[in-house]
């Protein structure tokens, strides 16, 4: 493979599993080089401005989409989420490799795909993976009170002694 060079990559698009959304709903594609702060800045600005919903999409091993969705849910009050897979939860990705003297190769891979819908409007609670708006007040109260109100850690000293046997 060291003499081959990648000629092109072809990804087949996946159809959005949320058909009843407005056509102007922002769809954020999370890629390998995406910075979380840039994704959050864009998503939060759209949710604060006029958008009632935002969709995060990712393919492959991209946990950034889940991380961003959880952070947006915490920052936007009353935000519900509904993760979903495509109709086929895999996206076919093909790469074509070329060589000067040999035949070209075509490599096909199946990448897992996730779509996460975040909405200010109530969603269907019967969908699998539905998450209602959470209450994060208890978590923020603990952090405001400080560590003094939490249960203190007890320090346990353990002494190991070896007994000598006189045999």
UniProtKB/TrEMBL annotation:
Any one GO molecular function term: RNA binding
The keyword Nucleus appears for this protein: yes
GO CC aspect terms: nucleus; ribonuclease MRP complex
Compartments it resides in: Nucleus
Database matches in Pfam families: Alba (PF01918)
Chief localization: nucleus
Gene Ontology terms describing biological process: tRNA 5'-leader removal
Superkingdom as given in the UniProt entry: Eukaryota
Protein family per UniProt: Belongs to the histone-like Alba family.
Protein name per Swiss-Prot or TrEMBL: DNA/RNA-binding protein Alba-like domain-containing protein
Classification of source organism: Eukaryota, Metazoa, Chordata, Craniata, Vertebrata
Gene of this entry: RPP25L
